[in-house]
Amino acid sequence: MTPFELVEPRALREAAVLLDTPGAAVRAIGGGTAVMLMMKLGVLRPTRLVSLRAVEKRYSEISTGPDGAIRIGAMTTLSALERSPVVRREAPVIIQTLRTLSNVRVRNVATVGGHLAHADPHLDLPPVLIALDARVSTVDATGGRTVPLQNLYAGYLETTLGRGELIAEVVVPRQIPRRAAYLKCTTRSADDWPALGIAVVLETDGAVVHDARIVISAATDTPTRLSKVENALRGARVTDNLLRQAGDVAASEAAVVGDSHGSAAYKRELLRVFVGRAIRKALEIR
User: Fold this and answer.
1) pLDDT tens digit sequence for 158-169
2) How confident is the model at residue 207 (pLDDT cuts 50, 70, 90)?
3) Residues spanned by the domain of 249
4) Which end of the chain has a smaller Cβ tally under 10 Å, C or N?
5) For the stretch 222-252, what's the b/e string if a residue is b when 16 or more beta carbons lie within 10 angstroms of its beta carbon?
């Protein structure tokens, strides 16, 4: 690895100021599970790393507001998120997703903010949080902003974050009584990178769908909502025929790409099948 300087500011805005250096090879590091690997591979060669581990404690906390929304600090580890009774009560699909997200060693150090900012399309949490209508608040040298999480992603390993802009918090709106599920298909172990990930959040009256949010990942360059499938589900009663139609619509709608986990044609067929399975799981139809 290229030699680098490590600095450890005590405030998130101070870190943003340090990162807002034109022309400098500066990177933020939270848990380091992605950054250090990319540095070892020579993909990144920063001369300075700005550690976020000593920033304000509130960025490592999980809480709920009067409106029932979950507020997740960006420095919260994935393990802390997995163990949170608040998350278990309000959005258990997040807990279920984390159980097969990499391994416990990674989850013990990887942070929510770093996980989202890495922008690898194979990550499990982005499609789930987008389906849950999450938004992110950011901090930069002069202020910050709040944006829907789905607007954070611009392409493969690309985000819309500006230079020196850091994720500060993730807010997940109250979900009850919505139903949610996440399924992923891996070609190796259950906690491997997925060939396809699919998150489904439904508002229902029995088997009739009033609203739907369906987001896929791994088969596309960015987490992608399937708006045509959502429209096909709204106002409809879930039947075997409807689920087959939804799978066909998904397979034709998504801009599927191939990679080492499967060809585009293979992933398209996975999508055709897994849309129905994920909807059934969300509805708890056996």
Assistant:
1) 999 999 999 999
2) confident
3) 179-283
4) C
5) bbbbbeebbebbeebebeeebbebbbebbbe
User: Amino acid letter at 13?
Assistant: R
Tokens matching residue 172 = 């997940």
Q: Which two tokens stand for residue 220?
A: 């596309």
> Residue 42 corresponds to which amino acid?
G
- Same domain, yes or no: 68 and 166: yes
pLDDT at site 22: 83
Distance CA 136, CA 171 (A): 6
The chain-wide mean pLDDT, for the chain, equals 95
Provide mean pLDDT across the span 140-157: 97
The encoded tokens of residue 127 equal 């499609």
pLDDT in tens, 45-62: 999 999 999 999 999 999
Residues found in the chain: 286
* Bridge partners of residue 183, in order along the sequence: 198
Amino acid at 162: G
DSSP 76-103: -BHHHHHH-HHHHHH-HHHHHHHTTSS-
Q: What is the mean pLDDT of residues 1-18?
A: 94
Q: Does residue 171 sit in helix, strand or coil?
A: strand
Q: Are residues 150 and 62 in the same domain?
A: yes
Classify 8 as helix, strand or coil. Answer: coil
Average pLDDT over every residue of 243-257 = 97
pLDDT of residue 284: 85
What number is the average pLDDT over the span 97-121? 96
Residues 226 and 163 in one domain: no
Which run of H or of E encompasses 275? helix 264-283
Is 59:68 a contact under the CB 8 Å cutoff? no
List of residues 6+ apart from 97 with CB closer than 8 A: 124, 125, 128, 182, 199
Q: CA Rg, the chain, in Å?
A: 19
